[in-house]
Write a sequence for this structure.
DNA sequence: ACAAAAGTGTTACGCATACACCCATGC
DNA sequence: GCATGGGTGTATGCGTAACACTTTTGT
């Protein structure tokens, strides 16, 4: 077991018979905050295995593209958004899932990505029934393949990243209120935050958000009109904004 | 661009001609703290491309193993340690590197792993010159392939994880002093920490370390003998131990 | 005696928490 | 008026930073 097997170690060169072909795919865990709930983009499988079950959108990595390029291409296809719109969305590699039996048909190694999108009109433009749609997180049965595990990892990652990055703005439209931003945290973390303290934390963090000058206020329903902000330049958050009673695992 | 291409989307089934064979490998970024320096396990390439350059150890994922199993197998091979010893080392998936041109010979998708090991006797037991050896971080020329980028990502990840996990104990032998543990932080972060404050932080965090009862003290050279500790049960660190002036990127 | 490292104690400050309170709008 | 959400102010407490001091070894 410990002895090197000739042909399987890279530094000694490639033996074309030392490996079987692997399929490499990407899977997407796409989140949005919509109607005060965390929603996930899913597709319904049309054939075996797992026919009828919900699954994460995804597809093959093409011969001349990186996994990241494949993920963004698939994201554009599944959401029906323009390439330029998708180019600005937050897309981040999660991790790679490589269990030999994760797909019963063949050996598939999948690089999972997490995407955060604002509350878009609707997933797709066409009427294609096989396309992806939003489902509130946790309201679907078991997902196909190992997608439940992928989605759980993605949710945990997103929740953790809200603590020490400015990532929450990725869930918001270009201009947003602090109430909307706070809604993101509360929805992803499943907790309530103190409004005054949240406001201070965000406004005193340099580069988290920047005030929109022109119209100093706008309404989202009833209540006092709120000031509008844009995402700032900063990406990190020091010190972090820890979730209350934060035990993450 | 936005239209679905038949055969490339997974939910519509597998087209055996929709993809070319990808080779899937693992690369290992193995760190240790040794002689008050951060050291990296590297191998010297024996042939083109990048002949003579240092590279991360790694190898192919075999048809019936996961990437994680492949990483642990390679770690055992490169370090020459027994499988049971390697089974207890901290090994963690970093991310996957999939640029189509990252290897000039063929399409190789590599799942990178980060391993943290204590100050081991010497990397290997045999006399094989082609085996891996420790080099102080930053003292080698440019690495082969995209391994400089992988190693930089790994270093950043390890530094960040020390902030909010109990991972530092993975660099230490089974029993260690608080001075040794502090040395880990100082070496990885490249800063000096206040000894009394570090001590308090570690001891007041439940489950970070646990005191070794029997012999209450032991020496590591000159100075007052220090108490010994073992790694505790906890994995997370709340609140985190932030590095001074912590700008991580 | 001196240096070096472990261990204890103390103070000050920053930040987060937990409130109380006022403002502006829709109904 | 009342409910709802935005915005401001303030007291309290925890945790870290900074630093002084004692203890115990090797040389």
């Amino acid at each position: 077991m410990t002895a090197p097997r000739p042909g399987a170690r890279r530094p000694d060169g490639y033996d074309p018979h030392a490996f079987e072909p692997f399929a490499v795919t990407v899977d997407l865990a796409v989140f949005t905050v919509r109607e005060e709930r965390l929603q996930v983009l899913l597709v319904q499988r049309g054939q075996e295995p797992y026919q009828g079950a919900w699954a994460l959108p995804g597809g093959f990595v093409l011969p001349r593209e990186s996994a990241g390029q494949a993920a963004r291409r698939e994201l554009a296809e599944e959401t029906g958004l323009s390439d330029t719109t998708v180019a600005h969305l937050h897309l981040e590699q999660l991790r790679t899932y490589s269990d030999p039996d994760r797909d019963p048909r063949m050996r598939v190694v999948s690089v999972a990505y997490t995407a955060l999108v604002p509350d878009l009109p609707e997933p797709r433009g066409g009427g294609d029934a096989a396309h992806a749609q939003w489902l509130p997180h946790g309201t679907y049965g078991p997902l196909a393949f190992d997608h439940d595990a992928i989605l759980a990892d993605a949710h945990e990652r997103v929740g953790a990243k809200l603590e020490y990055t400015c990532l929450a703005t990725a869930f918001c439209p270009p201009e947003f209120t602090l109430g909307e931003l706070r809604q993101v945290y509360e929805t992803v973390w499943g907790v309530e935050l103190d409004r005054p303290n949240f406001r201070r934390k965000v406004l005193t963090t340099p580069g988290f958000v920047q005030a929109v000058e022109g119209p100093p206020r706008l309404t989202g329903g009833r209540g006092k009109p709120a000031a509008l902000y844009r995402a700032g330049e900063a990406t990190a958050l020091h010190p972090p904004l820890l979730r209350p009673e934060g035990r993450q695992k």
